[in-house]
C-alpha cells in the first residue's frame, strides 16, 4: 500500500484547505496517509542547514522521505504561495543531491473563498517543485473556488458532492501517478 504524505500550506487549525485535506483519506482509501506538519519549521537559513538541520527540519525531511508521494493542499495569499509553504519547500529541497523532495511524486490542490481557485499559488508551487526535480502530477489540476459554499466549517467536512467526486478522482489519479513517476528516474 502506498504511503502518502499530506502537507497543508496553512497554519490555521480551521483552515478550509485542512478540511479539504482531511477528506482525502476517506475519498481515496487505497493508500496510507500521514499529515506532515510545517508549523514548527524555522525560517530557512543556510547557516542552520548543516547535517540533518534543526530537529523540526530533520523530522520534516524524514516524514517526506518515508512517503511514496506528497499531496500539497494550499491556500493562495496575495495571489501567491503562502510564505510558510515556500519555507517548508525550501527546507525539503536541500541538500541538493539528497533532498527529501528530489524525484518524489507530488500533486497540488488548493481551495479559496474566491473565484479563481488558487491558480496563481499553484502555478508558483509547481514552479518551485519542478525546480527541485519533483515529479508533479501532469495535465490535471485541482482548483476549489468558493470553498465556503462547499464545506461545513463547524463539522470540518467537505460537503459539496461535485467537489468530493472530483477530489476522489484526482487523489486516485495521483496514487496511480506514483507508479508511473517511478519509471522516470
From TrEMBL:
<dbReference type="GO" id="GO:0010181">
    <property type="term" value="F:FMN binding"/>
</dbReference>
<comment type="similarity">
    <text>Belongs to the azoreductase type 2 family.</text>
</comment>
<dbReference type="InterPro" id="IPR005025">
    <property type="entry name" value="FMN_Rdtase-like_dom"/>
</dbReference>
<dbReference type="InterPro" id="IPR050712">
    <property type="entry name" value="NAD(P)H-dep_reductase"/>
</dbReference>
<feature type="domain" description="NADPH-dependent FMN reductase-like">
    <location>
        <begin position="3"/>
        <end position="147"/>
    </location>
</feature>
<dbReference type="InterPro" id="IPR029039">
    <property type="entry name" value="Flavoprotein-like_sf"/>
</dbReference>
<dbReference type="GO" id="GO:0005829">
    <property type="term" value="C:cytosol"/>
</dbReference>
<dbReference type="Pfam" id="PF03358">
    <property type="entry name" value="FMN_red"/>
</dbReference>
<dbReference type="GO" id="GO:0016491">
    <property type="term" value="F:oxidoreductase activity"/>
</dbReference>
<protein>
    <submittedName>
        <fullName>NAD(P)H-dependent oxidoreductase</fullName>
    </submittedName>
</protein>
Amino acid at each position: 500500500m502506498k504511503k502518502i504524505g499530506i502537507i497543508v500550506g496553512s497554519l490555521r487549525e480551521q483552515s478550509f484547505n485542512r478540511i479539504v485535506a482531511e477528506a482525502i483519506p476517506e475519498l481515496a482509501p487505497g493508500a496510507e496517509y500521514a499529515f506532515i506538519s510545517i508549523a514548527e519549521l524555522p525560517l530557512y537559513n543556510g547557516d542552520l542547514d548543516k547535517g540533518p538541520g534543526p530537529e523540526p527540519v530533520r523530522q520534516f525531511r524524514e516524514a517526506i522521505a518515508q512517503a511514496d508521494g506528497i499531496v500539497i493542499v494550499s491556500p493562495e495569499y496575495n495571489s501567491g504561495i503562502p510564505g510558510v509553504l515556500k519555507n517548508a519547500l525550501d527546507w525539503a529541497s536541500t541538500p541538493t543531491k539528497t533532498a527529501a523532495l528530489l524525484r518524489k511524486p507530488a500533486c497540488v490542490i488548493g481551495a479559496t473563498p474566491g473565484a479563481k481557485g488558487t491558480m496563481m499559488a499553484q502555478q508558483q508551487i509547481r514552479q518551485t517543485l519542478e525546480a527541485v526535480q519533483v515529479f508533479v502530477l501532469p495535465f490535471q489540476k485541482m482548483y476549489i473556488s468558493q470553498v465556503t459554499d462547499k464545506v461545513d466549517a463547524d463539522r470540518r467536512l467537505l460537503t459539496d458532492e461535485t467537489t468530493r467526486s472530483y477530489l476522489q478522482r484526482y487523489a486516485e489519479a495521483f496514487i496511480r501517478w506514483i507508479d508511473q513517476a517511478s519509471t522516470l528516474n
